[in-house]
Amino acid sequence: MAKETGISEHSVQRIWRSFGLKPHLVKSFKLSKDPMFVEKVRDIVGLYLNPPDHAIVLCVDEKSQTQALERTQPILPMRPGIPERQTHDYERHGTTSLFAAYNALSGKVLSHCHQRHRHQEFLRFLERIEEAYPDDGKSEIHIVMDNYGTHKVDRVRRWFLRHPRYHVHFTPTGSSWLNKVERFFGKITTERIRRGSFQSVRELTEAINHYVQEHNKDPKPFAWTATPERIFKKLENSLS
């Protein structure tokens, strides 16, 4: 820019600093095209900030195709001044799909790993939720989930019709950040899956189950503080 404009590099840098311009950085974004975006945001955020009396709010999703990766060399533990180190190359030993229901009010997680990721496995997971949260005649279950195809097939729809205490809240398309379970997926990925070396899918599954068990001993729910108005304002500012 200095060459094209005929001014000094120092002047260019000063102008960039003055206007907060950072041409070396590029950030990505995605705006939802869901025609019901505003209504869905208000609905789901309302569940987080002001849930109905006796409500159980479960954020449900699947972390599909989670790979059992074995590092080609042993992981080196951290030392004073040196972080934990691992090789960038690995061998693949198969995948598993982690189904999880994150309790938005308590932070507790119900999970199960399946070999496949179809509506049949999703229905079995719904049955696990039903067993974990038996009907006490008072509580209603609100499920927050995305628009993935397995969540909307006829057999799944009929399951919810047979269980009228369940209320489904779909996130807007392209807005997985509204689902609290995604934060848990990020946490388990960073703290356990990426830091491990697994010789089989069984080893990976055992590691996931152990992590969830330890998490549930002292669960702490993710605090949601953003109101719908703050969310809409932030999106508006990002486009201005």
Structure in words:
- The protein has 240 residues and is an alpha/beta fold.
- It contains eight helices and five strands, in the order H-H-H-E-E-E-H-E-H-E-H-H-H.
- The protein has a five-stranded mixed β-sheet with strand order 3-2-1-4-5, sandwiched between helices.
- The longest helix is centred in the C-terminal third of the chain and has 17 residues, at 201-217.
- The mean pLDDT is 91.
Task: Identify the notable features of this structure and list them briefly.
alpha/beta, globular, 5 strands, 240 residues, five-stranded mixed sheet, 8 helices, Nucleotidyltransferase, domain 5, 38% helix
How is this fold's topology laid out?
Layout: H1 2-5, H2 9-18, H3 37-49, E1 55-71, E2 90-103, E3 109-114, H4 119-132, E4 140-145, H5 154-162, E5 166-170, H6 181-193, H7 201-217, H8 228-239
Parallel strand pairs: 1-4, 4-5
Antiparallel strand pairs: 1-2, 2-3
CATH class: Alpha Beta
Q: Let me know the CATH homologous superfamily.
A: Ribonuclease H-like superfamily/Ribonuclease H
Uncertain stretches of 5 or more adjacent residues: none
Extended strand count = 5
Average pLDDT reading: 91
Q: In which order are the strands of the major sheet placed?
A: 3-2-1-4-5
The gross shape turns out to be globular
Order of helices and strands: HHHEEEHEHEHHH
Structural class: alpha/beta
Question: In the CATH scheme, what's the topology name?
Answer: Nucleotidyltransferase, domain 5
The proportion of residues forming helix, as a percent range, comes to 25-40%
- Count up the domains: 1
- Radius of gyration in whole Å, from Cα? 22 Å
CATH architecture: 2-Layer Sandwich
Q: What fraction of the residues are assigned to beta strands by DSSP?
A: 15-25%
Number of helices: 8
Largest sheet: 5 strands, mixed
Distance between the termini: 24 Å
